[in-house]
Description:
Number of strands: 6
Largest sheet: 4 strands, mixed
Number of helices: 7
Helix content: 40-55%
Strand content: 15-25%
Shape: globular
CATH class: Alpha Beta
Amino acid sequence: MKKIVLSTLAVFILVSFTFAQKNKNKPVAFKWYSFEEALELNKKNPKKIFVDVFTDWCGWCKKMDASTFADSIIRSYMAAHYYPVKLNAERKDTVLFNGSYYVNPSPESSRSTHQLATALLQGRMSYPSFVILNEKFEILNTVIGYKSAKELEPILHFFGDNAHEKTTYAKFLETFTGTIKE
């Protein structure tokens, strides 16, 4: 009888582990919005806005898309707490934001930076960079450089859970337990 119970338990554990591994990175309903789409959505349902400022030539930006932003835990959290935005720092069109027009001053030149990217990054032009805006479109934080999913997870929670209103990031990290292990 003991052997049957142990065998059944072993099979159950193996099946559970296999199922968990298959679902670890299962696709999550997730959409990157344009900056303009996020502004409109925020009018109806206010949420923070996570802006991924990138360029087409940025290798680290592509690596983040393939790894960090492909992680199901990151996608799930971002979809629930933010409007995720992709902003090409070299876009060519005009954007109206907070009553001001932003343009690319030399849209025909290669690597000409759009004024909106410059404003959001406060002149610190480095890619990839991320800007977190609150529901009133105020900059809460700018994060510069590549981040793995494990590195990005606490940043997302710090602002998404409004911990930034109560404590410092250093203190928040002392108690934060993420779910991404790698």
